Amino acid sequence: MSTFLKIFLLSCISLSVWANEEVLNKVSLENDLKSIERGADTLMGACHSCHTLKYVHYRDLLNFGMDKQKVEAWRGDQSLDSALNAQMSETDAINMFGKAPPDLSLMVKAREGGPNYVYSYLLGYYQKPDGSTGNHFYPETKMPDILNSGGATEGAQHAEVQAQARDIVSFLTWVSDPHEAERLRLGYFVISYLIVLTTLLYFVKKQIWSKLN
User: What is the CATH number of domain 24-178?
Assistant: First the structure.
């Protein structure tokens, strides 16, 4: 394959990816405790009956600072170290939807477009002429319109649905990497330590070489 043809194909792929990204709605994520807790609250009420979050545990929610009473209500008789498993069994989910709903732990990282894709998907529902519900971003979806985005006809309703979708995506982004803040703090500490150590070693080296000259 010639170099020109390779460059042309790569350019086409890049333009395709760029075009797909342009279609997605852009979401401004919130990473504060209140926003993420609101997202958890909405998700646990609307999505947790079918979807699991197997890589996050109830103890993680408490450690992050979420309201203890809410976490206790969500977990019921499960231990704090239990994962957030779906309330519906996998067998019942398959019988109802044809296949088990996907785990949401890494959904933000798994989809091209990341948070923007998930946000667009939640807002992408619409009413078909026959009265059924479709989704612009994933036509094959079996998931119902949990936020009623397709039924929002007024500006205030749209704003409320968008806020709920943003909170859910903010929560799922946190779920995909719940230890990010801790890792960043540790990284800053390590970098600072290395800078100080390097500076000290530089002066030690300078002192030793000054005696040898």
Answer: 1.10.760.10
